[in-house]
Amino acid sequence: MNFDGEKPIYLQIAERIEDAILTEAFPEESQIPSTTEISVSYKINPATALKGVNLLVDQGIVYKRRGLGMFVMQGAKKKIMEKRKRDFYQNYVVALLEEAGKLGISRRELAAMLSEEEQEDE
Fold it and tell me: Residue 114: its pLDDT value, please?
C-alpha cells in the first residue's frame, strides 16, 4: 500500500483484491477478507476498506452472502482481465503509438523494437 501516492487507498484495496483473484489466491466463489480484517491489516479506516470492497461489488467482481461475508463472483477473473486489458490499451498502447508518431517511428519499426525486446528476454 502506498499511503503517500496519488492513488486513493480504497482503489489500492480494490486492486489488491483483484490481483489476488487474478493469481487465484481468491478463486471464484471463495471468500475474501472482511472489511474489518482489511482495515486491521493495513491500519486504515474500516470505511475506506468498505469503499474499496463496494467498488468491486458495483463492478460485479464480488458479492455479499448475507451473514457470511463477501465472495468472489463466478467469472470475476475474466471480467478483471478484460477490464485491465482495456485499461492497458488506453494507458499504454495509445500513448506509445502517439509518442512513436511524434518521433516518426513507423508501426513496423515499433513492432521490430518490441520483437527485439522479446528476444532479449529469452
Answer: 86
Dmax (CA) of the chain: 59
If you ran DSSP here, which 8-state letter would residue 31 be given?
Answer: B
C-alpha distances (whole Å) from 89 to each of 80, 94, 96, 97 are 14, 6, 10, 10
Task: Count the neighbouring beta carbons within 10 Å of the beta carbon of residue 114.
Answer: 11
Dihedral sign of CA atoms 39, 42, 52, 7 in order: positive
Question: pLDDT, tens digit, for every residue of 6-64?
Answer: 889 999 999 999 999 999 999 999 999 999 999 999 999 999 999 999 999 999 999 99
DSSP bridge partners of 31 = 71
Rounded to whole angstroms, how far apart are CA atoms 49 and 40? 10
Amino acid code (one letter) for 74:
Q
* CA–CA distance, 101 with 104 (Å, rounded to integer): 5
Which residue from 13, 68, 2, 15 is spatially nearest to 39, judged by alpha carbons?
13
Q: What is the pLDDT of residue 9?
A: 95
